[in-house]
Amino acid sequence: MLAYLIRRLSQALLVMAVMATIVFFGLYAVGNPVDLLINPEADLAEQEATIRRLGLDKPVHVQFGYFLGGLVQGDLGTSFVHNRPALELILSRLPATLELAFLGILIAIVLGIPLGMIAGLRPDAPSSKLIMAGSVIGFSTPNFWQGLMLIMLFAVFLGWLPAGGRGDTVDVLGIPVSFLTWDGLSHLILPAVNVAIFKMSLVIRLTRAGTSEVALQDYVKYARARGLSPTRVVGVHILKNILIPVVTVLGLETGNVIAFAVVTETVFAWPGIGKLLIDSIGLLDRPVVVAYLMLTVFLFVMINLVVDIAYSILDPRVRIRGAKA
Amino acid sequence: MMLAADAPLRRFAGDFVKSPLAVAAALGLLAIILMAVFAGAVAPQNPYNLAEIDILDGSLEPGQEGFTGFTFWLGSDEQGRDMLSAMIYGLRISLFVSFVAVSSAVLVGMTLGLLAAWRGGWIETVIMRTVDIQLSFPALLVALLLLAALGKGVDKVIIALILVQWAYFARTVRAAALVEIKKDYVMAARAAALPERRILFGHVLPNVMPPVLVIATVQVANAIAIEASLSFLGVGVPITEPSLGLLIANGFDYLLSGRYWISFYPGVALLVTLVCINVVGDHVRDILNPRLQR
After folding, report:
1. Nearest CB to B267: which of A29, A148, A282?
2. How far is residue B59's CA from residue B72's CA, in Å, rounded to a whole number?
3. Which of B141, B233, B245 lies at the smallest CB-CB distance from A266?
4. CA A94 to CA A72: how far, in whole Å?
5. pLDDT computed for residue B158 by the predictor
6. Which helix (H) or strand (E) is A176 found in, with range?
7. Do B255 and A144 touch (CB under 8 A)?
8. pLDDT category, B2, cuts 50, 70, 90?
9. B-side interface with A, Cβ within 8 Å?
């Protein structure tokens, strides 16, 4: 187990290092931030002072050295535009994204699992056909257009909910949250539904596939034959066995939710990290883009690491194969 | 392997027509593709020929008749462009981008996947590790950041899509090829001392095609959706070649003032296209999946 852990951890570190290199040199090609950030009417001395202050006068490899050194210390540079440490800037926006992501996933689970089980247990019933048709549409609808349609329906035509922004927030342990005020909640609903619909379609499909496979297993037949109530068979014997793949996929999808939040946040002007990323790309604010990337890479590597380790605990075959390789 | 050896294609077609939904989706898809290919002949107007559009026809509601007596069935945009025509032309760009991207990704992924399965050793390790790492990041995010570095353009979107999609094919082809390589016919071909290239591309390749085709179908839908999202976010195709995604993005500004049709109809076209592809893809997968065979 220890050997597996060490192997897996060093792999994760290698991925981080490779990504750091790709990210730095990739974004170096974006363009020259000097032209964009310096007031064209500033005199030469002022321009040079700014360039020096931002470290843009050094050769590329020296800048890369600074970048790596800073990375190790958790310093990802200072935003050209906001003049704040990039990491601090992103972390200040993170709670908004996380709130959105978690509410979206929660909606997807609470609605998706029961719907998927209904569709899996009675595959030929009209209600199941309807659920599956809905899931195909939910799966196929591009996220951003779905968001626009939600705005069109609920904000423009019905006027029930606001079209964008975050609304009032309340601080809980120093972190601003939206869901405790009515105004905040009303701003949160549409983007959260936008995040949820795609994930819900995924959960429905996974649950249905799992349910229709598990329902044919011998232990389910045996449970039925023992005369257990249908609720117990479905709620315990089937649910328990379909939960593993659903939870795994959802765990892996958490990262995806944060990535797709880029789209949802842009549509709803939700002040999370995704909106920050898009704005920073537009403004060529390189440190923020790099910091966002490194943070996302870190997050994904961590999620994968945790899932792999959890798997090796649940399924010893993975560990043994890993040790041999 | 999964189909009867005598007439696999006919068996497949026979299974396929059993589902009326899948047949309808396939026909719909065919109509969409034909419409996109013959956009110039099908569209009522050439929306990018300035001689044909008139600013006086701007922002007309769906079904309204324009200044010159031309009926705008799906409304017009700010510049007086017929939305129906703009959509058909946009569809052409969306389909072109995704089709070129996916077929290139199939070529790249298939070659690397076959190579990994055949050679093994460090080549396989390097290729498959790269695939693992690549697939652990969401395609949209990778493409977004690539385009942030590359800049806008149809060619650049295609490059970004190839880079995020080859890994799916490499993984699938390697897995299928590993199974095929151990089979007798490959042994026989090896014993007959056929050149490596001939064994790989002449014998192994045709037998790994079914799963590749299923994934390619789904990936075309993904490519269309990713391209649309990228264009919406402002890093995709340029304004001179608006895909469906860009049309929707342009309509976003008018949505809040109630002029819904500029965003709504291109989105419907996008949705119908994606649903058709996904229904066909799902059905093909079900037919080819031996676990579901009764």
Report:
1. A148
2. 10
3. B233
4. 21
5. 92
6. strand A175-177
7. no
8. very low
9. 133, 136-138, 140-141, 144-146, 148-150, 221, 225, 228-229, 232-235, 245, 248-249, 251-252, 255-256, 258, 260, 263-264, 267, 270-271, 274-275, 278-279, 282
pLDDT value of position B199: 86
How far apart are the C-alpha atoms of B263 and A22, rounded to whole Å? 36
Euclidean distance between CA atoms B90 and B242, whole angstroms: 6
Average the pLDDT over B62-66 and give the result.
71
Sort out which chain B residues have CB atoms less than 8 A from A289's CB and list them: 145, 148
Higher pLDDT, A14 or B40: A14
φ, ψ for residue B72 (rounded to 5)? -95, 90
Q: Which residue of A has its CA nearest to B223?
A: A142
H-assigned helices in A215-285: 218-225, 230-232, 239-268, 273-282
For residue A174, pLDDT beyond 70: no
Q: What is the pLDDT of residues B99-155, one digit of tens each?
A: 999 999 999 999 999 888 888 888 888 888 888 878 877 888 888 888 877 778 888
- Average pLDDT score over residue span A114-135: 85
Please state, as a whole number, how many other Cβ atoms lie within 10 Å of the Cβ of residue B74: 21
Q: Does A266 touch chain B (CB under 8 A)?
A: yes
Query: What CATH number does the domain located at A87-314 have?
Result: 1.10.3720.10
Q: Residues 22..81 of A with a Cβ closer than 8 Å to B: which?
A: 23, 26-27, 29-30
Read off the tokens for A30: 């974006």
pLDDT of residue A211: 83
Q: Hey, are the CB atoms on B232 and A259 less than 8 Å from each other? A: no
Listed by start position, the domains of chain A span 2-72, 87-314
CA distance B75 to A221: 58
Tokens encoding B54: 């008139």
Among all residues of chain B, which has the CA nearest to that of A19? B133
A163 touches chain B (CB under 8 A): yes
The candidate with the shortest Cα–Cα distance to A198, out of A112, A277, A94, A272, is A112
Mean pLDDT, rounded, for A245-251: 76
| Nearest one of B72, B46, B45 to B61, comparing CA atoms | B72
The first and second tokens of residue A236, run together, are 């315990």
Burial string for A69-93 (b: 16+ CB within 10 Å, else e) reads ebbeeebbbbbbbbeebbbebbebb
